[in-house]
């Protein structure tokens, strides 16, 4: 291998690399472009690593919401003003039964969604099987806030046998 510099003084305008009878000419501009490309690649990589790290830190800093279920019926829980409270209860609207939820002043409904069960083999919804209904509410003000629900058929008279749910939230 032979390296020959062509140019004036210490500023070579061109480098000739000879290896096995083959000569490759590389200009100073080509070398500088390659160095710039390498620096850009490193800079982009560093930025991506920093963004990934920041995303992980942000995700780790978030607390996942506690989900309250039938097991929490008649419980009292503490929450901060602005916090979101998640309640998930079993529901089977295909039989006519559904939850009628009421929220005291100071609680606002963020979302309400029924999730039907699916067959493990076909991933199709199972008719007649109970699913889960999830409500997300937000504590808008400080104080004692109450979320209540009655599980009944809308066309039947309310009876003492109807299932109920109550969650008291002490918002501070």
Report on this model:
The chain has 2 domains: 60 residues, no CATH class; 105 residues, Immunoglobulin-like. Helix content is 20%, strand content 48%. The protein is built from 1 helix and 11 strands; from the N terminus they run βββαββββββββ. The protein starts with a strand and ends with a strand.
Set down the secondary structure blueprint.
Layout: E1 2-8, E2 11-19, E3 22-27, H1 28-61, E4 67-68, E5 75-79, E6 84-91, E7 97-103, E8 107-115, E9 131-139, E10 143-153, E11 163-171
Parallel strand pairs: 4-6, 5-11
Antiparallel strand pairs: 1-2, 2-3, 6-9, 7-10, 8-9, 10-11
Q: What's the end-to-end separation, in Å?
A: 77 Å
The computed structural class is alpha+beta
The helical percent reads 10-25%
Number of helices: 1
CATH C-level label of the largest domain: Mainly Beta
| H-E string | EEEHEEEEEEEE
Task: Please give the radius of gyration in angstroms.
Answer: 33 Å
Give the strand order, joined by hyphens, for the main sheet.
4-6-9-8
Q: How many domains make up the coordinates? A: 2
Q: How many beta-strand segments?
A: 11
- How would a crystallographer describe the biggest sheet? 4 strands, mixed
């Amino acid at each position: 291998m032979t390296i020959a510099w062509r140019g004036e003084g210490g500023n070579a305008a061109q480098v000739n690399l000879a290896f096995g009878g083959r000569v490759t000419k590389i200009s100073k501009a080509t070398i500088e472009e390659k160095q710039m490309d390498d620096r850009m690649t490193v800079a982009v990589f560093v930025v991506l690593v920093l963004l990934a790290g920041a995303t992980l830190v942000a995700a780790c800093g978030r607390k996942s919401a506690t989900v309250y279920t039938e097991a929490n019926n008649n419980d009292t829980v503490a929450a901060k003003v602005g916090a979101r409270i998640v309640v998930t209860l079993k529901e089977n609207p295909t039989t006519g039964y559904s939850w009628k939820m009421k929220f005291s002043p100071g609680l606002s409904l963020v979302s309400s969604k029924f999730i039907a069960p699916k067959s493990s083999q076909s991933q199709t919804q199972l008719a007649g099987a109970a699913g889960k209904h999830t409500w997300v509410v937000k504590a808008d003000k400080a104080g004692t806030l109450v979320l209540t629900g009655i599980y009944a058929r809308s066309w039947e008279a309310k009876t003492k046998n109807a299932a109920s749910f109550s969650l008291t939230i002490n918002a501070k």
